Amino acid sequence: MSSAENGCVVTETVHIAAAPSQVYELILQPAKWWNPQHTFSHDAANLSLEARAGGCFCEKASDGSSVQHLVVVRVAPGKLLTLRGALGPFQAQAVDGALTWSLQPASNGQTDLTLTYVLGGYLSLPGGFARWAKAADDMLAEQVGRLQKVAEGGR
Fold it and tell me: Which domains does the chain have, with CATH numbers?
């Protein structure tokens, strides 16, 4: 993780005991692994992700509300998925980000996964990017850990 006055970069890397194609398919199903505490509806079952350029990482709640978290800009099945936008508290700020999932084949049919979130712009939240980069890093590290656990057969 690194931060500056006008942005930050968060990187999470993990080795997953599952094939890249399996990990990629699981990324496309955030309802199975995303922490519901990091949703507006507090229910990960409301999350969806369309794997196509212009597709939405969205959330719909039973009360009729909806959230566009990120927009898909690049899809390379089993290899790469890039989305644009601002997550969580960054949505109400004058910032934009690029979140990329990169999957590399590893030995024994396993996967080396790297998630990179590059965020920049004007942030009016107290503490600026120095403080909020750490919060984003913690949240994304948790999500990657949950993805790994589910991909390796956990709940």
Answer: 2-151 (3.30.530.20)
